[in-house]
């Protein structure tokens, strides 16, 4: 299973945002890492550099590698509509992201692990593919024998699901439903998707 396994605080500091969740290192030093971290901030970034940085931010936020991200972008292009918005909607509808948004896992990386370790079901059947597309009306649930997992119980106590209007959570059955594909205004990630479209259009 291909995934980014490098340092996370370093990446968060590079973008100046807690893209992997709360980070004490970022709170203490909210400037890029490295010997010239503070000086680097004053340097003017080229248009290409700004576009590339935005693409890298989206990739790291959703936990995709370059090839996966490029394939998803091409799918978004073919789907019709506003390419940037469609791309973000596709990223939001990935199974690992839906598990994270429902509050079953504390981070997207943890959600990806729960899925790949067969703790999650979609419409009653076990699905171990983190990139699987969840469609409107699909029910994502914690597998019966996995409901006692400590990581799931701890994460659900935070009850983050109330923030997202496109999801419905049933605490009794530990299952959630994707009511509809989220609109761009409903997606909270600070990503300028138009810059990504411009980058790939070169």
TrEMBL record:
Residues 93-157 form the RNA-binding S4 domain. GO terms for molecular function: rRNA binding; structural constituent of ribosome. It comes from the Bacteria. GO terms for biological process: ribosomal small subunit biogenesis; translation. GO terms for cellular component: small ribosomal subunit. Residues 3-92 form the Small ribosomal subunit protein uS4 N-terminal domain. Keywords: Ribonucleoprotein, Ribosomal protein, RNA-binding, rRNA-binding. One of the primary rRNA binding proteins, it binds directly to 16S rRNA where it nucleates assembly of the body of the 30S subunit. With S5 and S12 plays an important role in translational accuracy. NCBIfam families: PRK05327.1, rpsD_bact. Belongs to the universal ribosomal protein uS4 family. Part of the 30S ribosomal subunit. Contacts protein S5. The interaction surface between S4 and S5 is involved in control of translational fidelity. This is Small ribosomal subunit protein uS4. It comes from Odoribacter splanchnicus.
């Amino acid at each position: 299973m291909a995934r980014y396994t490098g340092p996370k605080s370093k990446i968060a500091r590079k973008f100046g945002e807690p893209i992997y969740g709360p980070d004490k290192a970022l709170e203490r030093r909210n400037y890029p890492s490295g010997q010239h971290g503070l000086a680097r901030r004053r340097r003017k970034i080229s248009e290409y550099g700004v576009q590339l940085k935005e693409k890298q931010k989206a990739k790291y936020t959703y936990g995709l590698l370059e090839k996966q991200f490029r394939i998803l972008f091409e799918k978004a292009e073919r789907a019709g509509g506003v390419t940037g918005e469609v791309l973000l909607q596709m990223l939001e509808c990935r199974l690992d992201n839906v598990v994270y948004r429902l509050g079953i896992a504390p981070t997207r990386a943890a959600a990806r692990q729960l899925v790949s370790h067969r703790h999650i079901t979609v419409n009653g059947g076990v699905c171990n593919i983190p990139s699987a597309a969840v469609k409107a009306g699909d029910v994502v649930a914690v597998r019966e024998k996995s409901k006692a997992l400590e990581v799931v119980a701890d994460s659900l106590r935070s009850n983050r699901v109330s923030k997202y209007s496109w999801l419905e959570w049933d605490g009794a059955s530990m299952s959630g439903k994707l009511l509809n594909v989220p609109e761009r205004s409903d997606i909270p990630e600070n990503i300028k998707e138009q810059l990504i479209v411009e980058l790939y259009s070169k």
